[in-house]
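#data-curation
PF: Archiving a pair of folding outputs for the training set. Convention for this channel: one message per protein, sequence first, structure tokens after, nothing in between. First:
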Amino acid sequence: MDDKRIAAAEHKHLIPLDRINGYDVRPGFYGINGATALREGVNFTVCSVEATDVELLLYHRGEKEPYAVLPFPKHYRIGGVYSMFVFGLDIFDFEYAYRVDGPYEPKKGLIFDRSKPLLDPYAKAVTGQSVWGEQPNQDHEYRARVVVNDFDWGDHVDPVRPIEDLIIYELHVRGFTKDPSSNVAHPGTFEGIREKIPYLKDLGITAVELMPVFEFDETMGKREVNGRTLLDYWGYNPVSFFAPNTSYTAKKEFNREGDELKDLIKDLNSNGIEVILDVVFNHTAEGNENGPFFSFKGFDNRIYYILTPEGWYYNFSGCGNTLNCNHPVVQQMILECLRYWTIEYHVDGFRFDLASILGRNEDGSPASQPPLLKNLAEDPILRNVKLIAEAWDAGGLYQVGSFPAFSRWAEWNGKYRDDMRSFLKEDYWFAEAAANRLIGSPDLYTGQYKGYASSINFLTCHDGFSLWDLYSYNEKHNEDNGWNNTDGNDDNRSWNCGVEGETEDPEVLRLRFRMIKNACAVLMCSRGTPMFLAGDEFGDTRFGNNNPYCQDNEISWLDWKRLNTNQTLYQFFKKMIQFRREHPAIRNNLDPSDTGFPAVSIHTNQPWDTSINQETKCLAVCYAGKTEQGEDLVYVALNVYWEKQRFELPKLPDTYEWRRFVDTALDEADEVTITEYWLQPRSVAVFIGTRKEI
């Protein structure tokens, strides 16, 4: 920013001014996108490469018609950028939008319409969505506010943990505390999550991954099914990339630029918990040619979206349109957006929804060296934030293990989910793949990756069954979504343990608890970074719905009563999370162990046996290394078969012995010395190598 020009703008008597419709104006600051408040007024900068005219519209709050229209003079345009400084504006008095004129040639992708008010692509706050579920108008006439940026971060320092040291907890801002059982004062809000920070700390969480918090319209597609009002609950249809969702606040935040979200991030960080945002840059809420027209379509349709030669929208996102991420204008917007959230909100990481789209060329083909992904990987502002890719898209591009990572990106390891789900439910022909997943997927993460630090291991996430449902349902049950159960994934690799759905059969319940504990133990003892879905730790259910994107009700809201009902599950999760944190040999290669054991090794039920094949029913992984405190030796045994199996543990030096830490088949597993062990059907046991007592 040019300090001399700002000083001139703030002393308007020193410079010649133009007068437009009652306002003193002058050319603005072309390098500052969006609307920026300065002492004497507001700077408005907007880009439209192919427009012929742009107007700034000023509205009194809540009024339909603008009280002032300020056309940008021709000499206020440089290239495709329009910039105007307007003196005398009080940012608390107005909302703003734009009208943009230009050619209308749909077959060329040009669809300018000067009759439609447009939302600033760089809007820092969006009006009209402050009350959840209430649709302000039918025309999608979004407006923006100019924000105050005076939040006091004090001496705040970002945690910046190594990614492999994180325990990631994926949650939905509203669903986490909306149910009355959450017992918070501000349910369904950022404040509600703040009230649960002591809970997150007690559980041992070191990172929360928030499902989309960018402004979205949950009322898009609003409908009634089976007596329920269905909304765009998940929020994967962004309206504005720079603005937090105002309906997630406990109070209306006029011009405060997301203070409640900043309070949440500051308090989470102060408690050692990082914040990762689930961001959606693959498409927008404007949809295809039948969708609304409120921002990007009106500024530069064929720049912001990937279009067919006939001017239609490519749909690699499955949501109607695809953002043209590798066009320089869009690249710049995405980079500025992520920098903004990093600088102003102290966000610690970003998970990119359908990230393979970010690597598509402007014609939709996959790029070998996508410039956007490279720029994000090497940007100095983003140096310490986590970049996590969902390395696939709805157009069939699946890149787990081949995503352009530039030695920087991590991935949601979808193959970990699939292979481990299969093996744990006794599909033992997945044993070889499961062995690789346990030790950080070395078959996937070589070359441009960072090894096991690139693998985000998960068995559950928002998309698919919860962990309770994974072992309660063989089939999805999405009838309440209104699509005759045709939506959602059919490849769930789940097992109902003998009864479909809820049951009071004690044997079935006992088996389900064991299967959940198996999943938890394996996840926490795998190389890579563990992530699980909020509520899994106390057996939250979504009643078999594996795609509750539209369910703003008890299907999606966490039922905190189950925390008491399933307290043993919670305590097991807590115990295994703590175990992982206390044993760095699981997470990293340490100094070599004096035992001579390698840092990580895979076994069958016989030590050092690596003859794993499609009949292998047992696996074990051993971690070994040395810290300043001494040897760190961990042995994890998996029996996925329906009969018990005998394990012989690797022989330790005479001064050491194996002690049992946990066995999922036992209600309580006291420490006992082990040389061989009979592992019960469908169970997991964990052992620690300790020095013998003299």
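PF: Second:
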Amino acid sequence: MNLNEVLAAFKALPQEEREELERLALDGTKGQLFVPNPGPQTEAWFSEADELFYGGGAGGGKTTLLVGLAIERHKDSLIFRRQIPQVDGLEKEVERILGTRDGYNSQVHKWRLPNGNRLQFAGMPNESDKEKYQGRQNDLKAWDEITQFTETQFRYVNAWNRDASGGRCRIVATGNPPTSAQGMWVVKYWAPWLDPSHPSPALPGELRWFTTVDGEDIEVEGRGPHFVNGEWVDAVSRTFIPSRLEDNPDLMATGYASRLNALPKELRERLRNGAFDVEAEDDPWQVIPTRFVKAAQARWTDRPPEGVSMTAVAADVAQGGSDKTQIQTRYDWWYSRFSSYRGSETPDGPTVAGLIIKEMRDRCRVVVDAGGGYGGDTLTQLAHADVDCYGFKGGSGSASRTREGMYGFKNLRSQAVWQFREQLDPDYGSQIALPPDPELLADLCAFRFEIRPGGGGEEIVVLPKDNMKEMLGRSPDKGDTTIMLSASKLGGLKRPKAAQERRDEKRRQVTAQTSQGALKAKLRGKRNGKSV
């Protein structure tokens, strides 16, 4: 129910009932410095969700909700913006509610509130900044403009959402729909409310329960406890409550709507209407346009095309650590979903080689990332098993050029990424079908490029993987695997040493057998000649 519907219902009541409700409201909020607006903001205020996402449209009272909760409901609050200068708006909103800046230390962005509650504002511009908040206990952890943060920042810091005295703890995120593919993790995280393809959609404000199994969120029934990996754990509840400018009468009265209505169409749909399914504007240096990837994902089917043999298998190997080993197969233009394994499940080359062979069909070739050191042992094991395997080393040289011949490439990685862009281009009749995986979408759209002078003229340089890690908050393993799979027939791939040795040995055996056969034939001819 939005604010207009609430007010209409209130006005429809008999005068006596309206007056009684007004009296009860005043009695119930006596002494409060902040009272939420009726409608979505009040629903968010009283939500029982452990993790609430509130927002959608611009001007719906998102920032006010966060500071209001900190002032009235929580003893120790920490509110994040991605960049610390952005907390200026939060500071002004607290000052507006309190009517003073007394108790605020602007040097460390800490506020001692009138009722004794503590509030701090913080920035997290770099991925590694999350480690500064390890062990920091807060009963309210709030995230203003959540789509500007990475998923790993959000998950890591929230681990210390607790109160030693046993009070109510909650996580509240606010924001508008993502404006880049890197913010799409939010749609996946609150998928029952935001993903139109979710098999079991949730209503606004409805609680859904989640626990983590082997690093993946799994929806379960109720808090539990649930038996997961040998231990009993409680699930965490999530919900999403949408809001729009119409739910914020004070801001609505300022004429803010006319400013939103003047925005370009795609921004207007996101910010005015809170639409989560509008195409984001790509970064001008983004290698693969978002619409290319989404079009390829829209073509995908659950099964590979009939009558088409498996073309290749690609693997990005992780051994231990937080990254995952990703294995993906390809049937010409059709790319499979990923088989993902925790690093602890793939501790060595023989294990990964066995998983790859399990996926193989039709004696297809295998491509393994050999640039980081982990893939070498896997390639050796595959070579000894007589698999047609190749190592992908992104730093290797490239003699290729872009489709129109204008630019060369700095290295093999730049070539493979750019040529996959060319393969996906719908203007050239692309048939490629990619699995509808949000992480893959974010990974492929995270590649950035520059044009630099090279030995043979200007060349395309795809920026290093570390840039993508900083942007995504994780390693782009799925994107790397798909790129390798697309490049499975490139000439720059190298056979592992063991495979080349095995191939040379086979050639020697064939040569020896051929020579021996020729010698035997010659001897038989001589014997036949004597008998004649």
